[in-house]
Amino acid sequence: MDDKRSKGVAKFKQMSPKGEEMIRTLLEDTAPGTYHQILELAFGDLYQRANLDPKIRQTVSLVALAAGGHENELRIHIDIARRLGFTKDELSEVFQQCAPFTGFPAPMLGIRLLKESFAQG
User: What are the φ/ψ torsions at residue 50 (nearest 5 degrees)?
Assistant: First the structure.
C-alpha cells in the first residue's frame, strides 16, 4: 500500500501540483482514508498502467466527471489534460461529444471550466 501511495503522490504532483494540494487540503484532516484511496487507486494504480494512451485515459476521466457534474475534480482533470498536451479545440470537442450521450447540461460544465482554464493561462 505504501508503495502505491508514494507512487500516487509523485504521479499526482507531476500531473497536477495544484490539484494534489487542493485534494490533500480538502481531505487530509477530515477524510484521510479517502485521500489515500485517491492516491493509491487513481494515481498509484490506474495512472501507472500502460494499457491506454494517457490522452485516452484522460478523456475518459473528463467525460465521467463532466457527466457527473463534479466541478472541482473536473478543474483538476482539465489541468492534467492541458499538461498532457490537449489543445483548447480538442477539449472543447470532448465536451461537445458528451452531449448526445449524457444530456445537454453535463457538457456545459466542462465547456465553462475549459473557458476559465484557458483564460487563466
Answer: -110, 5
**Hey, what's the cell of 97?**
461529444
Closest CA to 66 of 38, 91, 98, 93: 98
Cell numbers that stand for 76 in this block: 483538476
Q: Could you write out the DSSP letters of every residue in the chain?
A: -HHHHHHHHHHHHHH-HHHHHHHHHHHTTT-HHHHHHIIIIIITTGGG--SS-HHHHHHHHHHHHHHHT-HHHHHHHHHHHHHTT--HHHHHHHHHHHHHHH-SHHHHHHHHHHHHHHHH-
Per residue in 39-82, pLDDT tens? 999 999 999 999 999 999 999 999 999 999 999 999 999 999 99
Residues 118 and 27: their CA atoms lie apart, in Å, by: 27
Q: What is the pTM of this model?
A: 0.86
The region that residue 76 occupies, defined by phi over 0 for left and psi between -120 and 50 for alpha, beta otherwise, is alpha
